[in-house]
Amino acid sequence: MITLGEYIVKKQSEYPNATGELTSLLSSIRRAAKVVNREINRAGLVSDIIGGSFGRENAQGEVQQKLDVFANDIFKAALEARGEVCGIASEEEDDFVVFDSHTSANSKYVVLMDPLDGSSNIDVNVSIGTIFSIYRRISEPGGPVTLEDFLQPGINQIAAGYVVYGSSTMLVYTTGNGVHGFTYDPSLGSFGLSHENIRIPEQGQIYSINEGNYIKFPEGVKKYIKFCQEKDDDSKRPYTSRYIGSLVSDFHRNMLKGGIYIYPSGTSAPNGKLRLLYECNPLAFLAEQAGGKATDGFRRIMEIKPTELHQRTPYFVGSIRMVDKAGEFMTQYS
Ligand code: AHG
Ligand code: MN
Ligand code: MN
Ligand code: MN
């Protein structure tokens, strides 16, 4: 079994000019994932310590859970512990965080993250995740870290990935050369390569959307949902509805089986709920690398130029033909 550590070193050796910085950075993420995984597994046992609300709201007005804050602190510390990263931005931080000790010319990267995705599922033993996205800083290494370093379009991503803490824990990442998945073996304490070069089926039979918000959806989404539910033997409709409420887990399932995930705009959330920088861009990079697609219903997600850190966007991601079909409905009914 090839471990994640061995795999990223092997991949690095395929690039003669690679410096090993990205390898080291991914190792930090791997280490933090193991710590968070351990705590999540203990959450049921010591629920008063790890479970429940932290008693504070984040910048987006969401009640933070203790594990949101814990995971944020662990990933932040792991990324600061080595020298590659000059700063991070996170769903759980009001502003971007500069690592003062790492503003040297060697610290070329910024990391954007959703440290704990699926907060509402923590206390009920349902799969949750971590999402990360890595960019090269735009400002001169050695100089001040700027907001512009974080407000880059998704096409600038150097690497992205997620950890899903599920019935088994997996780390899935891309550096722009396919999508690779590793399953954690707790008895060995290591991630083993289990899913090399994941390809998302061009067409799937799963649609994932919180239909409780139906009344607020744009007309194109309503019509697309009806399309998914209609009977048609040729296209194997009706499709199956699956929605966990943890984006990472919903995305992971749809990537492996084929499907579409939609979090559209609604009248009470004009840009939907999901965060462009911490959730949509990294999963868009993975989707495209696996042969899938991600849009806001009209535009390619990774070409959107962000204007603020906690920016939200409607999101359509998954199998290419399904995302295209949903896009046709959006265009037709807008
Ligand atoms: P987070 O826990 O990081 O705040 O993300 C929650 C997101 C995402 O994980 C999930 O898909 C979505 O919120 C669920 O939202 P609804 O409960 O509105 O369906
Ligand atoms: Mn949240
Ligand atoms: Mn999230
Ligand atoms: Mn989160």
Automatic annotation (TrEMBL):
Which species? Answer: Zobellella aerophila
The record's SUPFAM superfamilies line, in alphabetical order, gives: Carbohydrate phosphatase
Starting at the broadest rank, the lineage of the source organism is:
Bacteria, Pseudomonadati, Pseudomonadota, Gammaproteobacteria, Aeromonadales
This protein's name? Fructose-1,6-bisphosphatase class 1
Q: Which InterPro entries match?
A: FBPase_C_dom, FBPase_class-1, FBPase_N, FBPtase, Fructose_bisphosphatase_AS
Cite the binding residues for substrate: 117-120, 210, 243, 273
Complexes and interactors: Homotetramer.
What are the Fructose-1-6-bisphosphatase class I N-terminal domain coordinates in residue numbering?
Answer: 2-196
Q: How is the cofactor bound?
A: Binds 2 magnesium ions per subunit.
